[in-house]
């Protein structure tokens, strides 16, 4: 069977500086980097000196820094991680590129397709490596399922169906998430969860030729729990997408926010010879993916354990979402050492921006959008 694993390699320490010392930095990025011997976390930037110093002390980071320019120009920083809010990404990315540093940015890359495309071009022109945090595509389960499809486990693909539901982005949000409410911040259900999970589909199962979309805004105002403030909301909390692939296979997707119970992810692949399913009890959290498959007629789905070679990480106790992020860093380290392109880049981000633009255009016009052109 074809595998998407790559032999372990020995690399010089990649020295990392963090921009944005928030919750996800501590929950996800720092544990991921600590697990991998290829990385050394050397600096952290926050406008708050107390916050930078406290995070540095908790994690043994040598340089707490209160100037963005000082961080990107620091001689002991090779890779700049941009982990602040999406509206703030552009300034930090531009600074890292201008300093000639490799740069990682969380998804969404920016709040604008045009700006994201400009930054991708700037990074290419500067000759720096650029990585976007579409890490879910690198989960061992998704890579294994992709290889099963490529190796003909279910024959020719006939349909792809995905349902993603999240308890997040509902009618009540904590104060630190207030920025996700305004449409211009590009940080609600469709940009964030749509971007992450549509990327899985298109990376592993094919890019659609056409799509049609319908969105609904059922949660028209959001209460900020900390303050009681209410904010108007115009972003969709339900997104329905249908589409077609080049071989005639069909696509159906539902994204829904504010799910009170039974949230999670399910992806079903129907083929001419069988079926595959991948499920996760949480769309973002500790659960790991379960893969099941069946071939022939009227057969029950059977669990398909992911072979060990798909796991690029040392032994760990990371939750599912954090382990996916660690796999992205493992992929980047291998790219640096071997000249491969395993980690998603700004070009992947621009492509996802274009898909989201097409979804919005289809919903507004009521027409099917041709993506092939």
Features:
18 strands; 373 residues; alpha/beta; single chain
Spatial ordering of strands, largest sheet: 17-16-15-14-7-13-12-9-18
**Low-pLDDT segments, ≥5 res:** 7-11
User: H/E order of the elements?
Assistant: EHEHEHEHEHEHEEHEEEEEEEEEHHE
Instruction: Give the total of beta strands.
Output: 18
Structural class: alpha/beta
Tell me the number of helical segments per DSSP (H or I, 4 or more residues long): 9
- Distance between the ends: 34 Å
- Oligomer status: single chain
Percent helix range: 25-40%
Net shape? globular
Main β-sheet description: 9 strands, mixed
Estimate what percentage of residues fall within beta strands: 15-25%
What is the average per-residue confidence, as pLDDT, rounded to a whole number? 94
Rounded to the nearest angstrom, the radius of gyration is: 21 Å
Characterise this structure.
The strands form three sheets. This protein has a nine-stranded mixed beta sheet with strand order 17-16-15-14-7-13-12-9-18. A six-stranded parallel beta sheet has the order 3-2-1-4-5-6, sandwiched between helices. About 1% of the residues have low confidence. It is globular, with a radius of gyration of 21 Å. The protein has nine helices and 18 strands. Strand 16 and strand 17 form a beta hairpin. Helix 1 packs across helix 8. 32% of the residues lie in helices and 25% in strands. It is α/β, with parallel strands linked by helices and 373 residues long.
